Structure formats: structure tokens, C-alpha cells
Amino acid sequence: MNPFPTLIPYNVPTLSGDELQYVTACLKNRKFSGDGPFTAECSRLLKHLTACPNVLMTTSCTDALEMAALLLDIAPGDEVISPSFTFVSAANAFALRGAKIVFVDIDPKTMNVNSSNIEKAITPRTKAISIVHYAGVSCDMDAIQNISKKYKIPIVEDAAQGLMSFFKGQHVGTIGSLGCLSFHETKNYNCGEGGALLINDPTLVKRAEIIREKGTNRSQHARGEVSKYNWISLGSSFLMSDVNAAFLCAQLNRADEINQKRLVIWNSYFESFQSLKNDGLVDIPYIPDYAKHNGHIFYLKLRNENQRNNFIDFMKQMNILTVFHYVPLHSAPAGLIYARFHGEDRHTSSESSRLVRLPIFHSMSTEQLQFVINCVINFFRNSL
């Protein structure tokens, strides 16, 4: 019997409880646009959490990726290597600059890009390697960095799902030249829409600030470093509003607490489904020794797409929303125009077609969690 008459959603946006207090303070400040006191505080908190010395708040992770494309001077005729199993922004940011996206296959164990496929896809036109830390689980950055150094190609880390995740003790997004974070409402920490650019190459800091300020040196003017500001280069309005920053500050100040709650839920799933995995009924996430994750996503991989669809229908009947993603970008209409797939698609399409994500959110109750676990186990045990 279902004890929850209303739907258990896949996601409920995180609330720390202090958001109203912080936003009210912002309203009293009467500073609503970007680079106000809360924007500065968010930047300071992220510098502390990630150990990155240069953090710029943006309106979204998409904007952070678009800033990365501008900073790396991506232009028509260039190529950017990326996994196809990712969100569309990871490709759009570079395709907007005229680059051809070169998709490569993933490692089925982690759903992250397979580093050996990156090297095989490199050509004289390769201008950047864009990698994604799927589900907050780090890519093999040692291998990817070796390729980057060998060919002198910069790395852009799409760490949209990665705040509070690490590779060998180093925060994801701080290893390549540039890292991009998301604070969309589906992320562990959110302000509805928001993002940040982590700048690890110090030679890019000054240009990044200009690009983010519509191509002007307005930030330098605000600090009194120049007498007036001018249009310096291409750019756009990439600044997060101080209202959004105030909302986000309330959560970043409780980052460890929020992270621990998500990990409790993630670990409960992981431990509860070990027997299903051992019996060969389902695959569950694999965490490499080098990775410390943040409990962003818990997924199951079923036998095939048909079984996955049956599972989603069953869970919906139990008033539980489970969802899948992504449709591989190389098979999408725009992917056929702006990209190509290098090598064989051995895993991207087949693995994505059997993956499903379970509900996981900060406010999830113990009773909701246990009910989801019981329903998952019942589905697989009854399908034997």
C-alpha cells in the first residue's frame, strides 16, 4: 500500500531555511544588480570551498561555459572534444563560436568520458577538451591532464553537478584551465538559476572580468583602477544579480550540512541495492578510488530501454517520479549539424538508454526514502 497520496518528486529545490533572511537583507541594501555585497560573499565562500583563487559568479553554468569559449578564443574551424552523454549547454557554448564539436565515447563504469578516446580524437584543429564530471563523480583527471600537457590543449571542466566533489583531494573544476559550476534549482545548491566560473589559469583572469562585464573594464573602474570604463572586447551580461546571490549565500553557508544530508540518502540507496547488483538484476553507480562525490545523482542501470520504461511506469503507479537523461547529443538534430562522433559509439547510446535516476533531495524524509527503496526492490524481485 502506498502511504504517500501525493507524488514523491524526483527533485525538490534545496532550501537552507535562511533564504528569506538573506534576500530581505539584499532588499534593504537596495543593491540588486551584479557584483553587490552578496555576489562578493558568494565568490568568497566558493573560493573557500573549492580552494580556487579566482571565482566569478554568473547567471548560469551555461554562461560560464560561454565565457570559457570566449576566453579560449574558440572560432570557426576549431574543434572541441566532448562526451556526447551530457547536457546541451556543453556543446552549445562552443558551437556558438563556430566550432565543430567532436563527441567521443564514455566509460560505462562511470558514465564519464573515456580518456583514451580523447587522444584518438585530437587533430591539428583541436582547440579545447571539454569534460563533464557526471553525477558529481570526477573524471580521471590524471590521464586527461597528461593528454592536455602533451598536446598543449586547455581543459574546460563542466562541473555543473560537482560542487563539493573531488579528484584525489582537489576540488573538481579547479584542475583544468577553467571550471564551470551550476546553481540551477536541480543542483545541490541553488538560486533558481545561477553559475560560477572558476579560473585556474591566472593569465585569463583579467579578460574574464572584462568578458563578464559586457566586454568593458567596468569592474576596474568600480575599484578605482581606471578613470572611466570602455568597450574593450567581445563580452556579454554574465553577472549574477545580487538577489540571486543572497539566496545562494544562505545555502553556501551551510554547504557541509547540505552535502552530508545528500550523502546519507545516496549511501542508503547504495547499500540497499547491493544485493540486487550482486544478483545481476541492476547496475548501480561505480565510484573510482580517486573520486570523492557529492551525492548529486543516484541512478540505476536496467537491462535495456524497455525494462527501464516499465520501471518508470511502475514507480509512477507508486506515486514516485523517476527520470532518465540524457538523449546522446550526437543523435540529436542539432548534433548532426554542429558535431560529429569520433570512433565507435560502443557505450554512449546503449548505457544512456538503460539509465534511470531516483529521487534525491535535501528535504527528503526517512519515510519517503524507505518507500522508494522498498518499491525498487519489489520491482526487481517480482520480475525474477
The succession of helices and strands, N to C, reads: HHEHEHEHEHEEEEEHHHHHEEHHEHEH
CATH class of the largest domain: Alpha Beta
Distance between the termini: 21 Å
The CATH topology of the largest domain comes to Aspartate Aminotransferase, domain 2
Q: What is the number of helices?
A: 15
Can you name the CATH architecture of the largest domain? 3-Layer(aba) Sandwich
Strand order of the largest sheet: 1-9-8-5-4-2-3-12
The CATH homology group name of the largest domain:
Type I PLP-dependent aspartate aminotransferase-like (Major domain)
Number of domains: 2
Low-confidence stretches: none
Shape verdict: globular
Largest sheet: 8 strands, mixed
The fraction of residues assigned to DSSP E strands is: 5-15%
Question: Quick gist of this model?
Answer:
The chain has 384 residues and is α/β, with parallel strands linked by helices. It has 15 helices and 13 strands.
What are the salient characteristics of this protein?
eight-stranded mixed sheet, three-stranded antiparallel sheet, 2 domains, Aspartate Aminotransferase, domain 2, 384 residues
